[in-house]
Amino acid sequence: MKKIISIVFIISFTSIFAQKKPVYKIYKINGHKTSYRKLLKKAKKADIVFFGEEHNNPVAHWLELELTKDLYEKSGKPIVLGAEMMETDNQKQVDDYLSGKIDYKTLKKEARLWPNFKTDYKTLMDFAKKNNLAFIATNIPRRYASKVYHGGFKALDTLSDKEKSWIAPLPIKYDAKLSQYQKMLKMMAGHGGDNLPKAQAVKDATMAYNIAKNIKEGSIFIHYNGSFHSNVHQGIIWYLKQLKPDLKILTIDVESQENINKLDPKHKQKADFIIATDKDFPKSY
Question: Does 64 map to a domain?
């Protein structure tokens, strides 16, 4: 049944393109149209590619896999994969799955997988497994981000040394004036107070720290994350620049629109490449 569903999806997806009704278009930072070929060309020259996604967007997940495959096959460089969707204290389970020590059923039981992991991210991890690539769990364990949300950064001081090894080194540097954190406060109408963007910041700092630890000279690190974490070169990138200022960074942002033939002006400047997807395309959840 699953195979039949997959085949139907592929046939439907192909049919859409055959009818010249694409489900996505790619734009440069200034809103001018560009192509996947040009995106790939730029990505091959980067040290790290941030693929900022909408978590329930199947077009984004398909493109993540396609870009990963193309960078692996055509860049001539080793690649490393990393993701917000996996938390640092589950790295052992990820490594055991990649090496074949445990199967998916055990991974699901022992690691905190997102509800949409099987449909949206397992293909990326399986690609890493098939090709003996590293897959880095970069995100902070969610219980510690929750501590920051409720008690600020000082709540992290109570953690044990082992627990602190799963987050960015303390104290967490923080700039409350960054536009993304200010935007978050406005979006939530003050709900959560000043600790809300701090909880976001400790995620960003931890992901940046784990990327910096695992990026290799001459390789390309591909990081999958919600677009808010990398848009306008803030979030993770702001912290990463504190650690490795000379990295060549490329960002991608995915946005759903009613009309993909022209980029909505509000999405300009968000990333080096903005992928507009048809908002009517079915979501994964």
Answer: yes
Kindly state whether residue 37 falls inside one of the protein's structural domains.
Answer: yes
Pairwise CA distance, residues 84 & 94, whole Å: 13
CATH number for the domain harbouring residue 69: 3.40.50.11550
Query: Could you tell me if residue 89 is inside a domain?
Result: yes
Q: pLDDT grade, residue 54 (50/70/90)?
A: very high
Domain that holds residue 120: 23-278
Please count the structural domains in the chain. 1
Q: Is residue 9 part of a domain?
A: no
In three-state form (DSSP H/G/I as H, E/B as E, the rest C), the secondary structure along the chain is CHHHHHHHHHHHHHHHHHCCCCCEEEEECCCCEECHHHHHHHHCCCCEEEEEECCCCHHHHHHHHHHHHHHHHHCCCCEEEEEEEEEHHHHHHHHHHHHCCCCHHHHHHHCCCCCCHHHHCHHHHHHHHHCCCCEEEEECCHHHHHHHHHHCHHHHHHCCHHHHCCCCCCCCCCCCCCHHHHHHHHHCCCCCCCHHHHHHHHHHHHHHHHHHHHCCCCCEEEEEEEHHHCHHHCCHHHHHHHHCCCCCEEEEEEEEECCCCCCCHHHCCCCCEEEEEECCCCCCC
CA distances, 52 to each of 60, 104, 130, 132, 146 (Å): 9, 26, 24, 24, 23
218 is written with which tokens? 């001459």
User: 124-158: per-residue pLDDT in tens?
Assistant: 999 999 999 999 999 999 999 999 999 999 999 99
